[in-house]
Amino acid sequence: MEWKGLLAVVAAGALVTGCAATAAETETASASSASSSSESSAKIAFPSTYKAYASDNIVITGATIFDGEGQRIDNGVIFMSAGKIVSVGGPETVIPTDSTIIDATGKYVTPGIIDIHSHLGDYPTPSVAAHSDGNEATSPVTPEVWAEHSVWPQDPGFSRALANGGITSLQILPGSANLFGGRAVTLKNVPARTVQAMKFPGAPYGMKMACGENPKRVYGGRNRKPSTRMGSLSLTRQTWIKAQDYRKKQRGAKPPKRDLAMETLTGVLDGDILVHNHCYRADELNQIIDMSKEFGYKVTAFHHAVESYKIADILAKEEICSAIWADWWGFKMEAYDAIPENAALLQQAGACVVIHSDDENQIQRLNQEASKALADGRAMGIEISDAQAIQWITYNPAKAMGIADKTGSLKPGKMADVVLWNDNPLSVYARPEKVWIDGAMLYDANDPARRPVSDFELGQPGEGDVK
C-alpha cells in the first residue's frame, strides 16, 4: 500500500524520497542463518521487518478521549512523541513546546481499532478464485500452514479498513474448513511491499482451530473424516496425542526429524502460540474447553461464538474471550440461536467481549458494530458505558492477541496507534478524521494526498476512494 501522491513504488523498487524504507526493502528474511536445531529454525523463520514511519511530536487538545480500558476523559489532552504515547489527561495536562497542536474540540479520540478476525490479504479484493488463499482445504489437519504466506500486501481492503474504520492492527487467520487451520499472523495496517514489513513486532502467533459445521461439511462431503461432530473431536484429540509425543521426543536425547505441523502444535502446548477457535454452539464451546484441559493448552478466544451468552459465567471463569458479531444470525443451523444481546450478556457476566469482522466490508465499520451491540444491551436494561463498548474493539482484542502491553489503549509508553473521530465513534455519522500508527499520520480525511492507494488500484475505476 502506498500514499497517493506520496508513497509510490518507482521502477527501481525504491520508495519516494521522504518515506523511510522499511527493513523489508533492504534485507530478505530467511532461516539460512539458523542453527541446526528445529526449535531455533522455527523461531526465527520469517521474522518481522516492520519499521515505523517517521513521526512528529503531536498534541491533541479539547477532545473527548476513550482510553480503551473503559475510561472517558472530557476535554482531554494526548501527547505523542517518537512513536509512543507520552501523556494522556485532562485540560490541565502540560502541553510541550515544539509540538504540532491539533484542536479537537467537539471531536473524539480512541486507540487504533483492532480486528481480531480478518482475512484481508488472504481473501483480497477483487474476490476471484485466483485470490482465494485462505483455506488449505486438502486435509482437515493443516497446522503447518501459515496465513502470512498467502497475504497480498496490495489488497485494497487494507486501505479501506484504515480510512473507513480506523483499523491500525489486525489478525489474519486461515479459514475454517479445517480442524487445525494453521498459524494466524498479526499485522500493523501500514503500506508495505512485503507481509514481513507489516508484521506486528513481538506479537505472538495465533493458531486457528475450528469445530462444528464447517469441517464436517467440507470433508464429510468428500466421504472422509470428519463427517460428524464426534469425528471432529476424535481426530482433533488424536492430533494432540501426536503433538504430545513429538514434544516429548523433541526434549529427549535424540530429537525427531523436523515437522512443521508438530512445531506449531508444540508451540501451542508450550504456551507460545495462542489458540483462536472458530466455534458456535455453547455445548461445543464447553467440549473444547474440556479437551484443552485434557491436553494442557488454553483457548485464548472463541470466534463467532454466537451462543457464548448461554455459558457466559463459564467463559468468565476460564478467562476466555468471545470474539463475536453484533447481530449476524441464521445463515446456518449453528447460527440459529444467535441473539443481538450476546455481547451485553457477556459483559454483564464479567466475560471478555471482542467485536470482530470476518468480512472485508464490516472491518470498515467495527465502531458501528460495537454501537449496535451496545444499544441492544441497553434496550434490555444492561448498563454499559460508551467507554466500555470501545474496549470491545481496542483493548480486549489486543489482550486476546497478546499485544495489550504494546497497543490497544492510550497509556504512556504504548505505541501511538490513535484515531481522531469527527464525532462520537459509536454514532452512525462518525468517521475517522486522522489515523496515526506508531505516531505517524497515515490517514487524513482532509488531505487527499494522504489517501492510501495500493499499487493494484492505480489506474483502476474508484482508485483511492473510501467505499
End-to-end separation in angstroms reads 16 Å
Low-confidence stretches: 1-42
Describe the global form: globular
Helix and strand content put the structural class at alpha/beta
* Structural Rg: 22 Å
Largest sheet: 8 strands, mixed
Mean pLDDT: 91
How many DSSP E strands?
Answer: 18
Helix content: 10-25%
Work out the strand percent: 15-25%
Number of helices: 11
Q: How do the helices and strands follow one another from N- to C-terminus?
A: EHEEEEEEHEEEHHHEHEHEHEHHHEEEE
Plain-language structure description:
With 467 residues, the protein is of the alpha/beta class. It has helices at 38-44, 156-165, 213-220, 229-250, 260-269, 282-295, 312-318, 342-348, 366-379, 386-391, 395-400; strands at residues 2-3, 58-66, 72-81, 84-89, 100-103, 108-111, 113-118, 167-172, 180-188, 206-210, 274-279, 299-304, 321-324, 353-355, 418-421, 432-437, 440-444, 452-453. The strands form 3 sheets. Strands 2, 3, 4, 5, 6, 15, 16 and 17 form an 8-stranded mixed β-sheet that branches. It has an 8-stranded mixed β-sheet with strand order 7-8-9-10-11-12-13-14. A hairpin with a 2-residue loop joins strand 3 and strand 4 (84-89). Helix 4 (229-250) crosses helix 5 (260-269) and helix 8 (342-348) crosses helix 9 (366-379). The longest helix is centred in the middle third of the chain and has 22 residues, at 229-250. The protein is globular. It starts with a strand and ends in a 14-residue tail after the last strand. Residues 1-42 have low confidence and may be disordered.
